[in-house]
């Protein structure tokens, strides 16, 4: 009987602690806390000329389509995302690859997952100062 009372008491404290959390006010919930929250992660950015081949790049294009437009990159870099370490995550964003184009910018692809690798443009950053190699 003593064990039942102890279990009931622990359960009551656990449930009470969960109910004691407070909600944010509407104003607090609407305000983003960081710069990253203001800008979407998947985007095309930069002040590229309208006649530039970079202007033809669209989110979701395949790696082959980009190579037809920009040619082969100067260098590439592949890396895992944090989603690779989530148990039972079978989505397509467990790996990314960056392609560096000297004097043009960086194209980031995503699409590696449990079903194979199907690289699609995730982010494109136009930067004429790009040296063509990763900084790290």
From TrEMBL:
Record's keyword terms, sorted: Signal
UniProt cross-references to InterPro entries, sorted A to Z: BamE-like
Comp. bias intervals (Polar residues): 24-37
This protein's record includes keyword Plastid: no
Highest taxon listed in the record's lineage: Bacteria
UniProt-annotated stretches for the region Disordered: 24-45
Signal peptide residues on this chain, from the entry's feature table: 1-20
Protein name: Lipoprotein SmpA/OmlA domain-containing protein
